[in-house]
Amino acid sequence: MRTQRRCGAVRLFVVVALVSRAVAADTAHNVPAAARATLGRAIDFYHHRAASHGGYVYYYSDDLSQRWGEGRASADTIFVQPPGTPSVGLAYLKAYEATGEQTALEAARAAAEALVYGQLQSGGWTQVIQFAGGKKAGRYRNGHGGSWNASSLDDGQTQSALKLLALADRALEFKHAAIHEAARYGFDALLKAQFPNGAFPQVWTGPVESRPIVRAHYPDYDWRAEGRVKNYWDQYTLNDGLAGTVAETLIVADGVYDDPRYRGALARLGDFLLLAQMPEPQPAWCQQYSAEMAPIWARKFEPPAVSGWESQDAIRTLITIARYTGEQKYLAPIPRALEYLRGSLLADGRVARFYELRTNTPLYMTADYQLTYDDRDVPPHYGWKQPALLDELEQAYRDARDGKPPALPAKLDISEARIREIIEQLDPQGRWVSTYAGERLVGQPKFAPGFRYISSEIFCRNVEAIGEYLSQQQR
User: Fold this and answer.
1) pLDDT digits (tens, 9 = 90+) for 407-422
2) pTM of the model
3) Which of 154, 148, 145, 140 is nearest to 185 (CA)?
């Protein structure tokens, strides 16, 4: 028996060595062919081994025995929030567009079907889908689940789900009735969640109420002690890149369904960003606004303030909307905002998440969540300082103003050297395995140094890079 096992191990070692040599040889002589083969192996592993109910979480142990999203996850829990199920499904679609391989389309279809199962009665999605039900499960349209019915735009949850459903619907030639119906139902709900001034709330349970349309202004009360809104999630928000992800989603909807309502909603979102730009001396944007368009508190560590991070997203979104609609008015606020942000850079070249209203002093919180101007004792779970993207944004603004095409996202490296590296990093099982070395991870699982894990974010990035590389090879 030991001899048989030893022989089997030797045979496995030889096979792995031969496969590795074959991939290396193929890569050296024919990178596109090796890239296609790499996509096939990676998709086969992720679709048939990592998926649960057709969906995904953020991280897996290398043997798939443990799963994490924001915390440990069971085999009956999948994540909607990126880089979960929609992100992986969109990567599959990128691979399908580049190769025409039906296996990639089948994997995308399965991910979309998982989202159909977890669509809330209110039309959108929350962070997770619980296939085993329970009190924390959503109130799903299919009659399963629990009582939670708050559709969320936080961290791209509903946006990413809708993008996958719409693009899968088109790839499946609008013949998958459940995916098609869920996509249209979801987009209808999203339109009903847009306020008359073009803003969106963080979450919704039904259509929003009508409100007066006014411009942003500074509060006329002591914002430190007053004006807290309990249900801040029902107010106008730009937190965590909401404007950009909603704009991208509406553009996808318009492209897939050719429905003028989506282009109209996109223009109204741009109109809101024009209204939401604060007056001098801080002509930028805030995280959260009241019905009267004054900055307000969100969570206890998110005070009324001008936000360096959300302002950069607002600028990028205005550029996107101006390009898509052809309306130059959406570019008009950008020069003033860029000048203000350049004058507000921190000593290390970054932007503060929060600048105090009127004084423009960088604003932080102590470990026990008291406002302070001192950054030495901030809670570690929040990004109090963020990268300044002002040069990139200014170039994007100039290109849009001058009618030049947008640049490829800098984070998507599709150089041949990078593609070779991605190909060589895939192991014989079809996995991209990482070794934990203390890096910060979405959801922050407590991995020990040296722990080997598989990341959905890395899977998506590598698949999208190979897909874009192959697409460009065919042009």
Assistant:
1) 866 667 889 999 999 9
2) 0.91
3) 140
